[in-house]
Design a protein that fits this description.
5-stranded antiparallel sheet; about 160 residues; alpha+beta
């Protein structure tokens, strides 16, 4: 006697797969948006921290007071662009339309001192879900502000003096 599945069993399996797909697909889309936002946030904050530490080394250990951002920081993550002609150098992550930037790290010289300005602009994300995710990471700003022992400028701007 040949064993096979009945029509009811096959329909039941198809219904279960359909229910799993309707639950999993929206979660997957949220994961992709969350990964994009977290990557930009992490690269911005970690990049600024590395630039600050490398800048301190050049200034105080090597007595070098003439450098550009590219000398102290290399960002090779997807989407990041370097602009050598802006101030003492700037990295930015342009939005998909190329009209503005999600995030930036800028090295300037103010009153003879190097200053690293970095920011993440949540409102520049085109996707509403990405903006929502970015705004949900406000506690990250507080952690980095305390870690740098820096004046908290606002929820999207930081200024580190070397």
């Amino acid at each position: 006697m040949k064993k096979s599945f009945t029509l009811i069993e096959l329909v039941f399996v198809i219904i279960v797969i359909g229910i799993l797909a309707t639950v999993a697909i929206p979660k997957f889309k949220d994961l992709k948006a969350q990964a994009k936002v977290r990557s930009i946030l992490k690269t911005t904050f970690d990049g600024a921290k590395r630039a600050y530490e490398a800048g301190e080394n050049l200034l105080y250990l090597e007595n070098n007071n003439s450098f550009k951002l590219k000398d102290i920081l290399q960002i090779t993550a997807k989407g990041w662009k370097y602009n050598a002609s802006y101030k003492e150098g700037a990295y930015s992550h342009p939005n998909e339309a190329g009209t503005s930037s999600y995030a930036s790290i800028i090295l300037t010289k103010e009153n003879g001192r190097y200053v690293i300005n970095f920011r993440v602009l949540c409102d520049k994300f085109e996707n509403e879900k990405e903006r929502e995710i970015c705004h949900s990471y406000n506690d990250v700003y507080n952690v980095y502000s305390a870690q740098f022992k820096n004046d908290y400028v606002n929820s999207s701007n930081f200024k580190l003096e070397l």
